[in-house]
Amino acid sequence: MDLKIQKLLTDMIDNFDYRVVAKPDNSLIRAKKEIEISVVNSRVVALFGWIDPREHNLPDFNPNKYVIYERDFMSQEVFEEVSGEFKLVFEKIPELNYIFKLKEEHVEFNSSLSKNDIEEIYEFVKTNYNVPIRDFQRRTR
Amino acid sequence: MENINLLTTYLNPKKYDASSGYRDIHYLIRIDSDFLDEEQFSFSKNVTKILRYGSPIAEDLAGGFLPVNIQYPLVVTRNGDEVEYYFKRIRNGITTYVSLEDALLPNTNESHFLPYNDLTFIPIALQHLHYYHPEQQKIYSVEIAMPEIRVFGHKAMDYNPKDLGGLTNGEYELDYKNASGYTNAVSDQILGMLEQGSKANLLRKININLYEQAAKIYWYPKIVVEQGKIALYYEYHRILNDDFEIPFTDGRFQHAIKLTFNHIEGFLAFMELTYFRNGVSPLDLWEGSGFRKRDCFKKYIEIVTKELENRVNNFKSKFSITGILAIIYYIPLDFFIKEQNLFRQQKDRNTILGEQFIWFAIDSVLKIPITNITVNVEDITLKLFEILQFIQQYKNTENKQKNDYLLDQLLSKTFEGKSYLLNFYHKMNTNNFVRYNHFIYKIWRKSSYFKRDHEVYKNSSYFTKLTDKDQKEKKKPWKMLPYTADKTIGFYTSNIDAEFDENDNIVFTPDAHWFSDIFTLFYGEKARGIRAYIEGDWQITYHPLYPVSLPNPSDKDAIRLQKISPALLIKASEDKGFWNNVGTAASYTFDILTSLSGFGNLAKFRHLARLADAAGYVKNGIRLKNTFYVYKAAKGAAAAIEISSGTINILLKITGLEDTEFGKALTNFLFWLEMLTLSVDLTDAISGGLKLNAKIISKESDLLAKKLDELVAAKQIDEADRARVIKEVEEIGGVRYKIDNFIARNPKRKIGAIRKNDILKELKTTISGEKVALAIQKKEIKLIRLDEEEFYKTIKKPSETIESLKKDKVVASQIKDKIYIRNDSPVNKAFGEIVHEGQHALDELAGLFDDSVALRQQTSQITHDGISMKSYVDKMTDGQVIELRARIAEREFLLEAKVALDENYNSVAAMVSFILKEYK
């Protein structure tokens, strides 16, 4: 796997694992110093979920693209706002472009990635991201 | 929001034309420190001012300015750049002042007039009229300019950012709603609200960048497409600015004004407002040199052509047509005769803009409900006809031939068994109905259809006896129809009835108008005088275009008729008159409607049926997704009424009820809905009528529920439809509707059966749920509903079994940005759980799971149910604090939604001790 891609994936994994203290050169941490934390987290976590095989059996998963503009429940106005956040995040974390390509209404894989590359990415996430769920993340009745 | 149409007026190149009628010039001078520095010389370049053309001055100031109606002279105090406004009163030798703030109060009184001994006042020379600009917090005073003071050049435009009334750099919305010819009529208000509420706002966004240097600039901008956005650069004139060196930065000359448009529609609207509407034609490319006009319009045409090409090439469904129509809407007619080669048989262009394309657009338009809602399809359709006429003009010099061509086409092309001519007749509404009929009249007048011996009339126009039901004996039709119409006390009457027959010809019979019954009811015996009967047993059938002579057409016709009119125009006048009468009757009194609804089944009405049609389209999800919006134009608050297509259809199904109060209310309710779409100008009556009747319906909700149950039983509607109808009617009735009704009405309903949109909508009715709903809508967090097995599979740890999770009764979970919930959760539990897990997700994304200090600090500041959380936070672990936050959100929601609380939520103390016990 391309080392740059591997670094980006590691950055994401470290960022979303509460047990890990992220390294100073983590690209997400860098961006969070410049723009709102929740903007970085929410937009990157969505993309991370899209390449995490564990989420591939969720109802609206689409292997070809991560849809930004959900016309069912998103007004054009909200879309513009969301799209602006994605643009901002891609601008502040240009490393994202190694894997993703931000389009007007969706995100897709960088066209230079082969099917094999993508499989490798899936495998990497599956193997390296294993964060146990915590008590409070479940609601019992 | 500033009204930046000031800018379009300012940039209008025709503003000084002798013909423009802009003779009187007024300035609104801003009374500020600049004004004082310039020794109150209004025409100094450094003084901020707004130019106003024509009078009275106040006419178009509504909105941005408040008139200041105070009889005392304006004075100011000054502290550096700060200027404060006062009015000076001398009474009985005593001088006092009232501050602007106090003067604007609705109840200014004597106590507001104070001596203000410690202040120094500067008298203001301008004392004609004052206006207050609340956003800028500045007073503008009116200065009337004498003609000789005009300081404007001709070769170039005198630019001064100060002339733009304080307009500063930033993003604005272009207001072209009013400029599109909308009035204050109900329909336009409805449209306006629709547009404002929809994506239209985004299309209107325009970014303005002004350079401070006042100097001469080119009249026309350079149009540049930069990073997908259209930018207009108004540049400084290279030759005429001797006294100032134009800065050269980033490889280009500094612009004076730069406008960037978010969307092509905003750009097109700007061009329309600034140039085409003011009589500038994109065809006048040869208007001297140095104006940059040619380049400007060349680029304009290039952009428009390309956009149309794009939209045509991406023409996937018949509904893409609205995208194309939207563009056509903004283009000046001249565009279509531009360089005529657009209509030549050139491979690339002809298909896009030629006749074939226009017909294709017209064909497509017929397949969608024509209304002015969302895109002004009606207006654009008429424009398409005008374009066709233009094209014919170019192709043929003979008037008749060109008009014949159009009418031939309109008669021979058919859709759903009817000619285009009649299809559009039935589909047009309100003033466009009138425009359409006049348009037809105009081309008809100069066509061979104007002659009675036209082939088409041979078998379609004839006279028969009413007694001859089989119409065995057809005679030549009368040339003269003894039609008279009148308008008395606001009601149109006529002596002839006009109906379409099955061949789409029009049958005229002598009759007293049905409306005379209303007169009788309203005016009793006096009504007799208004009735007009003709004794007779004749019946005449005319082809819609048959030229009928009328004895005395008058201005009392609902649509202006001519001495010789096509039969269709008489029919149109009758139809228009009918609806005006209904409107007039309604405006007289509400009670009269009860009698109107006596003729019962409103669904039979032509227009109402059309409404149902439109709703039907919507129902199938083709248009506007699932919702058909009808907006009410209520005074003051612009609250929107939302009625889904399904509801209209279902209500229509239960019309024709027995004579109960409910039945009457229902028919009236539908009637008012119909009125709304027809836009008879009855603002108050409509909103009042709708509300009142909706209230009655919901008061009788048992009856409504029963009727709906019958429909459910008959499998005509489903449970969801039933709930929606009740809800929507209640909403319009102003019955306070909240999520508690929703939950109380359907406590056992499963969350999986509710549309995501509805979940979001319900959540938004509470303060506590709104945050989560908005985050879901923004896709910051996701709501995922799963069946039981799938749910457990997704949230289980590798070490766990599904059985153990089941045993623990795990019902919801949050992982990163996702809220997982079971499809079979009942709504009285599920909503609270969504709020709970949503709070977790938001906290995690905000970094609170990783930041103990922030987590504790933020939570300590919460006061829930009147109790500060600080002391609890101090006793808790981080995990417990995280849980506390989610439980607070959930509990607040449950309280707001009036859901019964279980033992762990009974009190704050119970909740806290549960957390301390159950979580580590």
Outline the secondary-structure elements:
The complex is a heterodimer of chains A (141) and B (920).
Chain A: H1 3-16, H2 27-34, H3 37-50, E1 66-67, H4 76-92, E2 100-102, E3 106-109, H5 115-128, E4 138-140
Antiparallel strand pairs in A: 1-3, 2-3
Helix pairs in contact in A: 1-5, 2-3
Chain B: H1 5-11, E1 25-31, H2 33-37, E2 49-53, E3 66-68, E4 74-79, E5 82-91, E6 94-99, H3 100-103, E7 122-123, E8 130-133, E9 138-145, E10 157-159, E11 170-173, H4 186-197, H5 200-203, E12 205-210, E13 215-217, E14 222-226, E15 229-235, E16 248-249, E17 252-253, E18 255-261, H6 264-274, H7 293-313, H8 321-330, H9 334-337, H10 347-353, H11 355-366, H12 377-395, H13 399-412, E19 414-415, E20 418-419, H14 420-427, H15 430-445, E21 462-465, E22 485-488, E23 491-494, E24 496-500, E25 506-510, H16 516-523, E26 538-542, E27 547-549, E28 564-566, H17 567-588, H18 591-596, H19 606-619, E29 627-631, E30 640-644, H20 645-653, H21 661-678, H22 683-699, H23 701-713, H24 719-732, H25 739-745, H26 756-764, H27 767-777, E31 782-786, H28 788-795, H29 802-807, E32 810-815, E33 818-822, H30 827-845, H31 852-860, E34 863-864, E35 867-868, H32 870-875, H33 878-896, H34 908-918
Parallel strand pairs in B: 31-33
Antiparallel strand pairs in B: 1-2, 1-9, 3-8, 4-5, 4-7, 5-6, 8-9, 10-13, 11-12, 12-18, 14-15, 15-18, 16-17, 19-20, 21-26, 22-23, 24-25, 25-26, 27-28, 29-30, 32-33, 34-35
Helix pairs in contact in B: 7-8, 8-12, 10-11, 11-12, 12-13, 15-17, 19-20, 20-24, 21-22, 22-23, 22-24, 26-27, 27-30, 30-33, 31-33, 33-34
